[in-house]
Design brief:
- Helix 4 packs antiparallel against helix 7.
- The protein is α+β, with helices and mostly antiparallel strands and 280 residues long.
- It has a single domain, classed as Jelly Rolls, CATH 2.60.120.
- Strands 1, 2, 3, 4, 7 and 9 form a six-stranded antiparallel β-sheet that branches. It has a three-stranded antiparallel β-sheet with strand order 6-5-8, with no helix packed on it.
- It is 31% helix and 15% strand.
- Bound molecules: fe (ii) ion.
- Fe (ii) ion binds next to loops.
- The site of fe (ii) ion (FE2) has 3 residues, from loops.
Length: 280
């Protein structure tokens, strides 16, 4: 068994930006409503300035890149879910076939805040670039990342090309002696190696530039694209929704191979919704 680091199948460099204005329009009103219902706001406000209105303690990040607002949005409701399904339906023509999808999308609030713990390098940089495959996610996933605010600089997602991502992940894999089992639970080791190995850190910083995006854009990318936030030193909050999907043909092939046993939660009815987009 070997890691499918060199079997690309998505887009020319592993990622693709498309315009989907209806996506942000469908989701933002639900986010605004839930920010009030969950007690973070008294009235709607421009999301880019959310950090000026929410309590300061809500901005504090833990070393898993979570703050109180992001954690609160793990609990969603039928109206937000319905808006999410509208986005999924709008993506159907782009994917080109029926697909399985993450049942509960993640709503992230990238507020201006200091990066703590393992998100801060010994050299003083706040960064959390990673590949989800380091947390045992399948290589076959397609990530979807939808910003609800314009974002650039330190407020933007930082992301590599497939080629640079493979170089970074191969470098890390070599550092851990090619131990594929360790790779698949290797997120903490990746952060440690990033601190220990200046060459690896340089590759991550140089290979993962900010991806400036407008509200209404959507970024699709494969897991070999190393990605993540950096410490937000801007005066803008970035709010984004991310989720993962797998075309049904890829899902069926994924389940048929032995590696599927290494990602047991990625099944319909578990991380994936029990329905596919065509049967939702
Ligand atoms: Fe990720």
């Amino acid at each position: 068994m070997s890691l499918p680091l060199h079997h690309p199948h998505w887009f020319s460099d592993g990622k693709k930006r498309v315009s989907l204005p209806g996506g942000a329009d469908a989701i933002e009103p639900q986010i605004q409503r839930l920010l009030i219902e969950k007690g973070f706001l008294r009235a709607p406000c421009p999301l880019a300035f959310l950090h000026r209105s929410v309590p300061q303690e809500a901005c504090v990040l833990d070393e898993n890149y979570l703050n109180a607002v992001t954690r609160a949005f793990y609990v969603q409701d039928a109206s937000l879910r319905s808006a999410y399904y509208d986005v999924l339906r709008a993506l159907r023509p782009l994917v080109g076939e029926d697909f399985v999808f993450q049942a509960v999308p993640i709503v992230r609030f990238h507020l201006p805040a200091r990066f703590p713990g393992k998100l801060r390098t010994a050299s003083g940089l706040g960064m959390q670039q990673h590949s989800d495959t380091l947390g045992g996610h399948p290589f076959e996933l397609l990530h979807v990342w939808l910003p609800l605010t314009d974002c650039n600089g330190s407020a933007a997602l930082h992301i590599s090309s497939r080629e640079d991502g493979i170089a970074i992940l191969s470098h890390f894999l070599a550092n851990i002696g090619g131990d594929e089992a360790l790779y698949r639970r290797g997120l903490d080791a990746f952060f440690s190696e990033r601190d220990r190995d200046a060459e690896l850190q340089k590759k991550i910083v140089a290979g993962c530039p900010p991806c400036a995006m407008k509200r209404g854009d959507v970024l699709l990318f494969e897991p070999r694209c190393v990605h993540g936030g950096v410490e937000n030193s801007s005066d803008c909050t970035r709010v984004s929704v991310d989720f993962r999907l797998m075309p049904c043909s890829v899902y069926d092939a994924f389940l048929a191979q032995p590696q599927a046993a290494l990602s047991p939660r990625f099944r319909r009815g578990e991380i994936f919704h029990s329905a596919t987009i065509d049967t939702l």
